[in-house]
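Lecture 7 notes: from sequence to structure.
We start with the chain below.
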Amino acid sequence: MERRSALKNMGLAFGYAVATPTLLGLLQSCKDKPAYAEWVPSFLDKEKGYALAQTLDVILPKTDTPSATEMNVHVFIDKYLDEVMPLEQRDFVLMKMNKFYDKVLADSGKETLMDIEAADIEPALQTYLKKRSDEEEIAHFEAINSYMEAIMQGGQATLDDDISRFSFANDLRDLGTWAYKSSEYVGEEVLAYLPIPGEYIACEDVNTLTGGKAWSL
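Predicted structure tokens for the same chain:
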């Protein structure tokens, strides 16, 4: 699975700008903060918070740059679910999360989420983040949209377990990457950062302009 190599070239896929400055402030690196095994989430239960933090560190591991949890992405997502996401969408995320981690537990043979390790999570991410055909992706998104439309209209609906896991893995990767890129450290030290724009160069290769990095701002 591709890891950090894609980060510098990824654009903002979704409009998460509704997050408040207070929430975004959680993304700054905290000195002497406890390990996430000791972290008590505000919204998720402790087991799911622990699993979420580990999953984010599989997606964005520590290399020459900090890991997702070192940038407090797990804390941000927990708060985002609690304070920003509409109730119907939040319930949908929790349903998908449950199905994803039920699969991780079943495949790993572990009894609780507090027992799982990165090696238990990575196979599920490889399965549900792998590139699919355009036709398969369209079918997945149509099923997801139909499910959400039914729920938001007060009806009942079911969603295939594998599609639920696909949706959770992809949404977590997108939201986690967006949050990571929104942190002050990554914005200024990892991405191309130019707070006071200078000369505008319309047609030039990105490798020449920024060394291949995406712009922070």
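Points to note: Confidence is low (pLDDT under 50) at residues 1-18, 29-34. The radius of gyration is 18 Å.
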